[in-house]
Backbone:
Protein backbone atom coordinates (compact mmCIF):
# COMPACT_ATOMS: atom_id res chain seq x y z
CA UNK A 1 0.00 0.00 0.00
CA UNK A 2 1.54 3.36 -1.01
CA UNK A 3 2.43 5.77 1.76
CA UNK A 4 1.96 9.51 1.46
CA UNK A 5 4.29 11.95 3.08
CA UNK A 6 2.70 14.11 5.76
CA UNK A 7 5.82 15.90 6.89
CA UNK A 8 4.41 19.33 6.13
CA UNK A 9 1.11 21.24 5.98
CA UNK A 10 1.41 21.28 2.20
CA UNK A 11 1.48 17.50 2.10
CA UNK A 12 -1.57 17.31 4.35
CA UNK A 13 -3.52 19.78 2.17
CA UNK A 14 -2.57 17.86 -0.96
CA UNK A 15 -3.77 14.64 0.61
CA UNK A 16 -7.06 16.23 1.73
CA UNK A 17 -7.56 17.63 -1.78
CA UNK A 18 -7.01 14.23 -3.29
CA UNK A 19 -9.56 12.69 -0.88
CA UNK A 20 -12.14 15.42 -1.58
CA UNK A 21 -11.63 15.14 -5.34
CA UNK A 22 -12.00 11.36 -5.16
CA UNK A 23 -15.20 11.71 -3.12
CA UNK A 24 -16.63 14.22 -5.62
CA UNK A 25 -15.75 11.98 -8.57
CA UNK A 26 -17.49 9.02 -6.88
CA UNK A 27 -20.51 11.19 -5.99
CA UNK A 28 -21.02 12.51 -9.52
CA UNK A 29 -20.31 9.12 -11.08
CA UNK A 30 -23.00 7.51 -8.91
CA UNK A 31 -25.72 10.10 -9.54
CA UNK A 32 -24.99 10.98 -13.14
CA UNK A 33 -23.66 7.69 -14.55
CA UNK A 34 -24.61 4.64 -12.50
CA UNK A 35 -28.03 5.76 -11.25
CA UNK A 36 -29.38 6.88 -14.67
CA UNK A 37 -28.04 3.66 -16.22
CA UNK A 38 -29.60 1.40 -13.57
CA UNK A 39 -32.99 3.13 -13.61
CA UNK A 40 -33.18 4.01 -17.34
CA UNK A 41 -33.41 7.64 -16.28
CA UNK A 42 -34.69 9.85 -19.10
CA UNK A 43 -35.90 6.81 -21.09
CA UNK A 44 -39.65 6.18 -21.34
CA UNK A 45 -41.98 4.08 -23.49
CA UNK A 46 -45.41 5.16 -24.66
CA UNK A 47 -48.00 2.51 -23.78
CA UNK A 48 -49.67 1.27 -26.99
CA UNK A 49 -53.46 0.99 -27.27
CA UNK A 50 -54.43 -2.60 -26.56
CA UNK A 51 -58.22 -2.29 -26.39
CA UNK A 52 -59.97 -4.74 -28.71
CA UNK A 53 -56.85 -6.80 -29.40
CA UNK A 54 -56.72 -10.51 -28.69
CA UNK A 55 -54.53 -11.55 -25.78
CA UNK A 56 -51.95 -12.97 -28.22
CA UNK A 57 -51.85 -9.73 -30.23
CA UNK A 58 -51.49 -7.67 -27.06
CA UNK A 59 -48.67 -9.88 -25.81
CA UNK A 60 -46.75 -9.53 -29.09
CA UNK A 61 -47.18 -5.75 -29.10
CA UNK A 62 -46.05 -5.42 -25.49
CA UNK A 63 -43.00 -7.62 -26.17
CA UNK A 64 -42.00 -5.35 -29.05
CA UNK A 65 -42.18 -2.38 -26.69
CA UNK A 66 -40.23 -4.12 -23.90
CA UNK A 67 -43.25 -4.14 -21.60
CA UNK A 68 -44.68 -6.87 -19.40
CA UNK A 69 -48.34 -7.62 -18.58
CA UNK A 70 -50.60 -9.23 -16.03
CA UNK A 71 -54.32 -10.09 -16.31
CA UNK A 72 -55.87 -8.30 -13.35
CA UNK A 73 -59.57 -8.86 -14.08
CA UNK A 74 -62.04 -10.44 -16.49
CA UNK A 75 -65.55 -9.29 -17.35
CA UNK A 76 -68.19 -10.83 -19.61
CA UNK A 77 -69.51 -8.51 -22.32
CA UNK A 78 -72.09 -9.85 -24.74
CA UNK A 79 -70.99 -9.60 -28.37
CA UNK A 80 -67.27 -9.13 -27.67
CA UNK A 81 -64.67 -11.76 -28.51
CA UNK A 82 -63.65 -13.83 -25.46
CA UNK A 83 -60.13 -13.09 -24.14
CA UNK A 84 -59.91 -9.81 -26.04
CA UNK A 85 -58.65 -6.74 -24.18
CA UNK A 86 -61.45 -4.68 -22.62
CA UNK A 87 -59.22 -2.09 -20.91
CA UNK A 88 -55.75 -1.71 -19.45
CA UNK A 89 -53.73 0.32 -16.97
CA UNK A 90 -51.66 2.40 -17.49
CA UNK A 91 -53.81 3.69 -20.32
CA UNK A 92 -52.73 4.16 -23.93
CA UNK A 93 -50.09 6.85 -24.57
CA UNK A 94 -48.99 6.94 -20.92
CA UNK A 95 -45.19 7.14 -20.57
CA UNK A 96 -43.68 4.30 -18.54
CA UNK A 97 -40.25 2.77 -18.00
CA UNK A 98 -38.97 -0.23 -19.88
CA UNK A 99 -40.17 -3.48 -18.34
CA UNK A 100 -43.22 -1.85 -16.72
CA UNK A 101 -46.09 -4.26 -16.07
CA UNK A 102 -49.36 -3.39 -17.83
CA UNK A 103 -52.49 -4.63 -16.04
CA UNK A 104 -55.12 -6.02 -18.42
CA UNK A 105 -58.88 -6.48 -18.08
CA UNK A 106 -60.02 -9.12 -20.58
CA UNK A 107 -63.41 -10.29 -21.83
CA UNK A 108 -64.42 -13.44 -20.01
CA UNK A 109 -64.88 -16.53 -22.17
CA UNK A 110 -67.90 -17.74 -20.20
CA UNK A 111 -70.95 -15.70 -19.29
CA UNK A 112 -71.95 -15.66 -15.62
CA UNK A 113 -75.38 -17.03 -14.80
CA UNK A 114 -78.24 -14.72 -13.87
CA UNK A 115 -81.75 -15.55 -12.68
CA UNK A 116 -84.72 -14.94 -14.94
CA UNK A 117 -86.63 -12.05 -13.33
CA UNK A 118 -90.33 -12.35 -12.56
CA UNK A 119 -91.84 -10.37 -15.43
CA UNK A 120 -94.87 -12.56 -16.04
CA UNK A 121 -97.95 -10.32 -16.05
CA UNK A 122 -95.97 -7.16 -16.75
CA UNK A 123 -96.37 -4.92 -19.79
CA UNK A 124 -93.99 -5.39 -22.71
CA UNK A 125 -92.05 -2.16 -22.04
CA UNK A 126 -91.71 -2.89 -18.33
CA UNK A 127 -90.53 -6.45 -19.05
CA UNK A 128 -87.91 -5.21 -21.53
CA UNK A 129 -86.50 -2.77 -18.98
CA UNK A 130 -86.32 -5.40 -16.26
CA UNK A 131 -84.62 -7.88 -18.57
CA UNK A 132 -82.05 -5.24 -19.49
CA UNK A 133 -81.34 -4.43 -15.84
CA UNK A 134 -80.75 -8.16 -15.25
CA UNK A 135 -78.20 -8.36 -18.05
CA UNK A 136 -80.56 -10.05 -20.52
CA UNK A 137 -81.68 -9.00 -24.00
CA UNK A 138 -85.15 -8.95 -25.51
CA UNK A 139 -84.94 -11.01 -28.68
CA UNK A 140 -88.46 -10.49 -30.04
CA UNK A 141 -92.08 -10.15 -29.00
CA UNK A 142 -94.33 -13.05 -30.00
CA UNK A 143 -98.08 -12.41 -29.97
CA UNK A 144 -100.48 -15.19 -29.08
CA UNK A 145 -104.28 -15.22 -28.84
CA UNK A 146 -105.12 -14.00 -25.32
CA UNK A 147 -107.38 -11.38 -23.78
CA UNK A 148 -104.45 -9.99 -21.74
CA UNK A 149 -103.36 -7.37 -24.28
CA UNK A 150 -99.69 -6.29 -24.17
CA UNK A 151 -99.10 -8.56 -21.17
CA UNK A 152 -96.19 -10.99 -20.88
CA UNK A 153 -97.57 -14.52 -20.47
CA UNK A 154 -94.50 -16.71 -21.12
CA UNK A 155 -90.76 -16.46 -21.72
CA UNK A 156 -88.67 -18.43 -24.21
CA UNK A 157 -85.11 -18.82 -25.41
CA UNK A 158 -85.40 -19.99 -28.98
CA UNK A 159 -88.26 -22.49 -28.86
CA UNK A 160 -87.62 -23.55 -25.26
CA UNK A 161 -89.84 -22.09 -22.56
CA UNK A 162 -87.95 -20.84 -19.51
CA UNK A 163 -89.15 -20.32 -15.96
CA UNK A 164 -88.91 -17.38 -13.60
CA UNK A 165 -85.90 -17.85 -11.30
CA UNK A 166 -84.11 -20.17 -13.72
CA UNK A 167 -80.36 -19.60 -14.12
CA UNK A 168 -79.39 -18.64 -17.67
CA UNK A 169 -76.21 -17.09 -19.13
CA UNK A 170 -75.96 -13.32 -18.88
CA UNK A 171 -76.59 -11.70 -22.27
CA UNK A 172 -79.07 -14.38 -23.37
CA UNK A 173 -81.75 -13.31 -25.85
CA UNK A 174 -85.22 -13.83 -24.42
CA UNK A 175 -88.46 -13.94 -26.40
CA UNK A 176 -91.48 -12.32 -24.74
CA UNK A 177 -94.72 -14.18 -25.40
CA UNK A 178 -97.41 -11.52 -25.19
CA UNK A 179 -101.21 -11.56 -25.39
CA UNK A 180 -102.78 -9.91 -28.44
CA UNK A 181 -105.85 -8.69 -26.54
CA UNK A 182 -108.27 -10.69 -28.69
CA UNK A 183 -107.99 -14.27 -27.60
CA UNK A 184 -109.63 -16.91 -29.76
CA UNK A 185 -112.84 -14.99 -30.21
CA UNK A 186 -114.34 -15.54 -33.68
CA UNK A 187 -116.97 -13.40 -35.38
CA UNK A 188 -118.88 -13.38 -38.67
CA UNK A 189 -116.89 -11.92 -41.55
CA UNK A 190 -118.42 -8.47 -42.14
CA UNK A 191 -119.58 -7.33 -45.57
CA UNK A 192 -117.32 -4.45 -46.67
CA UNK A 193 -118.27 -4.56 -50.38
CA UNK A 194 -119.91 -1.33 -51.54
CA UNK A 195 -118.34 0.77 -48.78
CA UNK A 196 -115.87 3.56 -49.37
CA UNK A 197 -112.34 2.53 -48.40
CA UNK A 198 -112.24 4.82 -45.35
CA UNK A 199 -115.64 3.61 -44.16
CA UNK A 200 -114.57 -0.03 -44.54
CA UNK A 201 -111.38 0.65 -42.58
CA UNK A 202 -113.28 2.29 -39.70
CA UNK A 203 -115.95 -0.41 -39.67
CA UNK A 204 -113.44 -3.28 -39.62
CA UNK A 205 -111.42 -1.57 -36.89
CA UNK A 206 -114.56 -1.25 -34.77
CA UNK A 207 -114.98 -5.04 -34.97
CA UNK A 208 -111.37 -5.66 -33.97
CA UNK A 209 -110.29 -6.56 -37.49
CA UNK A 210 -107.54 -5.18 -39.72
CA UNK A 211 -107.49 -4.20 -43.37
CA UNK A 212 -104.80 -6.35 -44.96
CA UNK A 213 -103.72 -6.12 -48.59
CA UNK A 214 -105.40 -3.44 -50.70
CA UNK A 215 -105.52 -4.21 -54.45
CA UNK A 216 -106.69 -1.44 -56.80
CA UNK A 217 -108.72 -2.13 -59.93
CA UNK A 218 -108.70 0.78 -62.39
CA UNK A 219 -111.03 -1.14 -64.75
CA UNK A 220 -113.95 -1.14 -62.30
CA UNK A 221 -116.99 0.97 -63.18
CA UNK A 222 -117.64 1.71 -59.49
CA UNK A 223 -116.78 5.12 -58.01
CA UNK A 224 -113.11 5.44 -57.14
CA UNK A 225 -112.34 4.23 -53.62
CA UNK A 226 -115.22 1.74 -53.47
CA UNK A 227 -114.61 -1.75 -52.07
CA UNK A 228 -115.61 -4.13 -54.87
CA UNK A 229 -114.36 -7.42 -53.43
CA UNK A 230 -113.02 -8.87 -50.22
CA UNK A 231 -111.33 -11.99 -48.90
CA UNK A 232 -112.47 -13.81 -46.86
CA UNK A 233 -115.96 -13.25 -48.20
CA UNK A 234 -118.74 -12.19 -45.87
CA UNK A 235 -121.47 -14.51 -44.65
CA UNK A 236 -122.91 -16.01 -41.49
CA UNK A 237 -121.11 -19.26 -42.13
CA UNK A 238 -117.74 -17.55 -42.61
CA UNK A 239 -115.93 -16.84 -39.34
CA UNK A 240 -112.80 -14.81 -38.66
CA UNK A 241 -110.76 -14.45 -35.49
CA UNK A 242 -110.69 -11.03 -33.89
CA UNK A 243 -107.38 -9.36 -34.72
CA UNK A 244 -107.01 -10.96 -38.15
CA UNK A 245 -106.99 -9.15 -41.50
CA UNK A 246 -109.44 -8.82 -44.39
CA UNK A 247 -107.95 -8.24 -47.85
CA UNK A 248 -109.92 -5.92 -50.12
CA UNK A 249 -110.08 -4.88 -53.78
CA UNK A 250 -110.81 -1.18 -54.39
CA UNK A 251 -111.90 0.58 -57.55
CA UNK A 252 -109.57 3.20 -58.99
CA UNK A 253 -105.83 3.52 -59.39
CA UNK A 254 -104.96 4.24 -55.75
CA UNK A 255 -104.09 7.91 -56.13
CA UNK A 256 -107.73 8.76 -56.74
CA UNK A 257 -109.27 6.10 -54.50
CA UNK A 258 -110.01 8.44 -51.61
CA UNK A 259 -107.51 6.91 -49.18
CA UNK A 260 -104.59 9.27 -49.59
CA UNK A 261 -102.91 7.11 -52.22
CA UNK A 262 -102.48 4.14 -49.95
Residues:
Amino acid sequence: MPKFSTNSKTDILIHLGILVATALILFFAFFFLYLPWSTNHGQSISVPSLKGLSLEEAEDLLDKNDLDYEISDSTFVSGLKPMSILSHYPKANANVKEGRKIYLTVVSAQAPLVKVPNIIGRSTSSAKNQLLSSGLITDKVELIPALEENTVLKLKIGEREINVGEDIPKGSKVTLVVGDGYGNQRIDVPNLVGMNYDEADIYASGLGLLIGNVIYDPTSDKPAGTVIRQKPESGVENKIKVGESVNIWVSGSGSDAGDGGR
In short: Residues 257-262 have pLDDT under 50 and may be disordered.
